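Each lists chain and fold; for instance:
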Amino acid sequence: MIKNKKLLLPVSALALALMTSAAAADTKLNALFMSQAAYSEEDVKAMVTTFEENNSGITVELEFVPYEALHDKIITSAAAGDSGYDVVLYDVVWPAEFAEGGFLTDLTSRVPKNVGNKIFDGAWTTVTYNDRIYGMPWILDTKYLFFNRELLAQAGIETPPTTWAEVMEQSRILKDKGVVEYPLVWSWSQSEAMICDYTTLVAANGGHFFKDGKPAFDQGGARAAIDYMVTSLNDGLTNPASTEYFEEDVRRVFSNGEAAFAMNWTYMNALVNDPTESKVAGKVGVMPAPGVEGISTASAVNGSMGLGIPSNSPHQDEAWALISYLTSKNVQENYAKLSLPVWKDSYSVASVTNGQEELVAAASKAIAVMSPRPVVPAYTEVSNILQKHLHSILLGQESTDDALADAAKRVSRIR
């Protein structure tokens, strides 16, 4: 039963349908969120404040950590008993591991049947494993190609690239004409950020991580992806500091006008067009990551995230009420400048489209071709192996053949 009728005020009818119960008095929820990309800390705090105001028995203790700390925080919390987290944000690549390990609550019975086709399929994959649902999709995201229109014009380039080969060609023109020293910037630190860029290029080249149950990243389109990355570095087109960069580093370099092209998540669009944050505001274009001629017309990695309830949470009903509110259509539409909604109908709503029409147009194409990273319970181990070997290739510490062969061998042992 919903004990506080004030909850009805800010929440859509659909969100109310999602809420099977509200909070008992004096309940404190511990919630774990990410401190970079997607929604800002200020946005999350504002959402939660409104929730608390309309649920006078609940307080929410928010904890923000870098993406790189999320996974281990969730695992550690599983041993914390009643004092662990009640709501956690998790990546699309973790449901298999978390479900197999019993870390997340199966919430299939709480999700109304009529919600399914109103949310993008790519968002549902974030919270689904073996046909069971372990949360609600909250962040529907992929990496886009951002470009500086002014720098392209200075180099005499009239239209942005439509293929990855053209990205390379235009970068050479920009460099040769002295418009910018390093036209490309990426987040290629030894981290999941690099794997997301790599996945985008693998998808563009029609490659696979696994084929017939065996590692395939040493062949075909997956091999072509790392070759492209190496070439861009060796030719001086990619900023060499990219091998140390995370997404926020990419944003800062691009915002300073020091790169013509950058790969990054949705959140960057608002910030690079904000004059208080960026020197290139008003000069930025955004498009889906391009494809490879004869293979693909666009490419994208599924970088979506969901909100779930750890199995050891003593406040399951209250946690579900918070999740239902945060993922509701109205709330997502009101906070759509850093993260686009998971709801299909939202993409024709003025509060979502106004001022970011180009991003929404890019999203409509990118969402349709989002490629997953491997959906395996041992994903974290697989990713760590790939991170190590791909990074060593980029740094010139290992040959591509040796590094990929070793990575394939090590991953085979895990699987």
